[in-house]
Amino acid sequence: MVKFAHLADCHLGGWRQEELQNLNFRTFQAIVARSIQERVEFMLISGDLFDSAYPAIEILKETFSEFKKLHDAKIPVYLIAGSHDFSASGKTFLDVLEKAGFCKNVENSEVQEDGRIKLTPHFHGDIAIFGYPGRKSGMEIEDLRKVYFDSVYPFTIFMIHTTIKDVVGTIPIDSLEKSGLPLANYYAMGHIHQIFEAREANSHYVYPGPTFPNNFQELTDLKCGSFQLVEIENGSTKSQNIKIPLKEVAYLEINLDSGLTATDRIISELDKLNLRDKIALLKLKGTLLEGKSGDIRFNEIEEFVKKKEAYTFLRNISSIKVQDSEFENQSWEVDNVEAIEKQILGEYSKQNPADFNKYLPQLMNALSVEKNEGEKSAIFEDRLLGELKKTLEINKIM
Q1: Whole-angstrom Cα distance, residue 294 to residue 312?
Q2: pLDDT on residue 245
Q3: Nearest to 220 by CA among 189, 241, 248, 254
Q4: Could you read off the pLDDT of 246-300 as tens digits, one per residue?
Q5: 38, 156, 201, 217: least surrounded by Cβ within 10 Å?
Q6: Do both 63 and 135 map to the same domain?
Q7: Residue 370: its pLDDT value, please?
Q8: Do 176 and 277 belong to one domain?
Q9: Range of the domain at 159
Q10: Domain identity same for 9 and 141
Q11: Are 199 and 236 spatial neighbours (Cβ–Cβ below 8 Å)?
């Protein structure tokens, strides 16, 4: 039997809040310690070890320290670059880790004359480990439709940092069908910050989830980070998702209709919760019939949360709308938004004649697309980019 750890989307250095950046790194440390305790034979990191191709020096120093622990425990680390730690120049600090002997970047690809991309594996014993990196804006997807393995091996792992169709549902973004990938026994995937596991025949597809949530919505949905412990026995795999809940999350959602009374109401609701040493999350929604969001005294709310001894506090006010009475009383020559836009565009085109003006109505429609509830920022950006490319009749961005 062979046991290994599979993790992805660590995004070390990604949080601006010091408390959450520390918690992100402590979770990574806990995963390293658990992997050593479990005596895994090797570790896979499927992209986005760092949140940037050029992380801060303090993040690098702490990361090197953790990789040294794995090195001293004789646990090799195999990784690929993700969409965040990938660099168009091909040079990232993953190279520095590799030069230090702490990891192996398993990407080994060669473009053939027919345009296909041949992958050659790195071997751990008789296990063939292939890898292909993620890129900005999902640009790796087109490449992955062209990749193939150099040969067939008894047991194959394919490390990829991309989106497969099974996890995006009905969201219209570019993604891969599982059947379009070269045949492997275990697909060690990253990029999508969800916990996902599927089996088809002898193939096992796994997203382990991020090692720590990367934004407000992920903290709400996931609560904590996770990784995968995988065992290979007799050519088949079984795995377990291991969660690392270092801090509890206290989530409060309030629907507001007044900015003038909001502060007292929010504090009253927060007072009902036990926030001590927890990540306190506050989401405000609704349409303000009086006052505005600027009337909410957030400094006072934050001071109250500190007195409740919360570990840290985050708020989300993106779903608050303000009813603007001025527009209700204003008379217009036309009585709907679409007609108003059409009138404005018509006047602009008369004053600024150009062939590009024919795209303006479609561009306004494309740019009016809203982010779906729970949709990750990267997925939304890819979807929006796709709409803009279609509108402008751009088949390929150089």
Answers
A1: 22
A2: 97
A3: 248
A4: 999 999 999 999 999 999 999 999 999 999 999 999 999 999 999 999 999 999 9
A5: 201
A6: yes
A7: 55
A8: no
A9: 2-244
A10: yes
A11: no
